[in-house]
Specification:
The chain is 40% helix and 23% strand. It has 283 residues and is α/β, with parallel strands linked by helices. It has two domains: 124 residues, D-Maltodextrin-Binding Protein, domain 2 (3-Layer(aba) Sandwich); 94 residues, Periplasmic binding protein-like II (D-Maltodextrin-Binding Protein, domain 2), CATH 3.40.190.10. Strand 2 and strand 3 form a beta hairpin. It is globular. The termini are far apart. The N terminus and C terminus are likely disordered. One of its GO terms (molecular function) is ligand-gated monoatomic ion channel activity. Pfam families: SBP_bac_3. This is Glutamine-binding periplasmic protein.
Length: 283
């Protein structure tokens, strides 16, 4: 009797196992079907995701948070806000500044926001949004330097600039100047502090922000030169992307979000003409 009883118990266990397996498969299939139906039945199409190129050492426009390692800055907040109101998601792709235009031309990225000045040469290679920030170039020297007081005193001097920028173009116009092009903005000021160069030519807000972070051994001298307007760059012919960006910038200006982001990073209200109106309309 004992062998038969054992055999009976074994058959019960096998039967229970088979039933459990069939029930599990049915549940999984039902769940998958339910999920598929729910997704297919969604009336709103999935938002497109645009890859955004930037060079993340250009504080306060784009840089990495020292604690979290996340990208942060004025440009980061702005492009995310544009995406929210214009209906697209953002995926950041960090690269060297001198490679951004090429990445756009080869369609390796969908757009770029990285303190990119709108100039005639770049407009031949890419398309730009309406301007979203007004900047300019300044000279920075060590605080104990009393001989260089502006651009006019840079003749024959050693100057550090970021490679591929309008700062580099401007510095190369200076007679006799020995221009050193470096990849990242912090490297410019390190070279200045170490005595490798006499001055740095760079964008005003970036230089000012660097000094505000406790680098009191650096000072800005002279006037602002070459007033510039930053724009969001897209590959030539990407009219749909460009239209979304421009509409997003206009919306942010109208609803006050642009002013909020601007004040967060620069501590003051933005110029009334930015963004959404061409520079010549400045009051």
């Amino acid at each position: 009797m004992k062998p038969l009883r054992r055999l009976g118990l074994l058959l019960v266990v096998v039967l229970m196992f088979l039933l459990a397996g069939c029930g599990g498969a049915s549940q999984e299939k039902g769940a998958a079907t339910s999920g598929g139906t729910s997704s297919a039945g969604t009336s709103n199409p999935t938002k497109p995701k645009y890859t955004v190129a930037l060079e993340a050492t250009f504080a306060p426009f784009e840089f990495r948070d020292m604690k979290t390692g996340d990208f942060t800055g004025f440009d980061i907040d702005l492009i995310k806000a544009v995406g929210q109101v214009a209906g697209f998601d953002v995926e950041i792709k960090e690269m060297g500044f001198d490679g951004i235009i090429t990445a756009l031309q080869t369609n390796n990225v969908d757009l770029a926001i990285s303190g990119i000045s709108i100039d005639d040469e770049r407009k031949k290679a890419v398309d730009f949004s309406m301007p979203y920030y007004q900047s300019g170039l300044v000279v920075a020297v060590k605080t104990d330097n009393n001989t260089i007081k502006g651009f006019d005193d840079l003749n024959g001097k050693k100057i550090a600039v970021q490679i591929g920028t309008t700062s580099a173009k401007e510095a190369k116009k200076i007679p006799g100047a020995k221009v050193t092009e470096l990849d990242k903005v912090p490297d410019l000021f390190l070279e200045l502090k170490n005595g490798g160069v006499d001055a740095v030519v760079n964008d005003l807000p970036v230089t000012a922000y660097y000094i505000q972070q406790g680098n009191k051994d650096i000072k800005i001298v002279g006037d602002v030169r070459a007033a510039e307007y930053y724009g969001i760059a897209v590959p030539k012919g990407k009219t749909e992307v460009l239209q979304k960006i421009n509409e997003g910038l206009k919306t942010l200006k109208e609803n006050g979000q642009y002013a909020e982001i601007y004040k967060k990073w620069f501590g003051q209200d933005p110029p009334s003409f930015l963004p959404g109106e061409p520079p010549q309309q400045k009051q």
